[in-house]
Task: structure prediction
Amino acid sequence: MQRNRAVVRLGNIVGNAARFARLADGAKLCAVVKADAYGHGAAAVCGALSGTAACYAVALVGEGVQLRLAGVREDILVLVPPLGEEEVLRGAHYGLIFTVGDEQDYALLSRTCEKFGLIARCHIKANTGMNRFGFDMPGFRAFLSRRMSGRVFAEGIYSHFYRPEHASTAARQFALFRAFCEEGERAFGKLVKHIAATGGLLASPGYALDMVRIGIGLYGYLPAGFEGALPLRPALSVYTSVAAEREWRGGGAGYGDCCPGRGRLAVLRTGYADGFFRGGGIGNVNALCMDAHLSRAPVHKYGEVCIFSDADAYAAAHGTISYEALVNVCGRAVKEYV
Result:
């Protein structure tokens, strides 16, 4: 087969989710399935976690719409605030939950809902140190003093630890977030409160509050600083086919001036167009081409080779992190779910 084969073990994802649910001790589980569930296939992952996850989180309105069209009925939180009227229209139509991180986000929601007679749900984002999205406390207090729209309903409030592995930093963030929650609930009433993602929950089960957002941990990996903290099972392996095998007859091996000397070469049908990073192989970064990879592996034409099964090891070899590896390596791959 010319396309790579990505095998996704849904049972491993369900098992990983169950471990985090036990650690959360009653808090709702929000499964983070942005970027096509970190490359694993968002619709299939949501289907497998139905009954375990109370909510799903995506980055973009379009991702949430795709899940609705796939039959997902649970709450879907969109983590990036809407950037235009069309996104508000689509998100409201499909019952997605928006993020509001400043007064402009709220104004866009309320203005669009008033214009088209819609209702929008949202969670407030508080900036407790990530400095990515979210209200700062002075701006939040000023926002709460203003008149609210009758068409935009705040149902939750959340933030994000930027250094969950650092105990004192996380504790300061958590204390600030609790202050945001008090201000928010005085204005809106009871809100779903959540700050802990995978690292935050591992830092302290006390950070779980009403809901936890588990992303990388679902797929079998842990963030930096929490290596070995919880036994997890990776869910993704990628296989490719051997497109050719040959004896080296002089010249190079792929582009460039690498001269491998004597030996047998295999041509694997994968390349950087399939999401793999250049490097490795036979010591020549150009051994990985757009659609092929030259290797010394003792394999035979038409055979199949596992080229990815450990995101941590792959990431370490390429100077990156498992997150980046996972969202890339299924490019052009056919997914198989087991």
Summary: The chain is about 35% helix and 20% strand. The chain has a mean pLDDT of 95. The longest helix spans residues 167-188. Residues 61 and 245 are 46 Å apart (CA to CA).
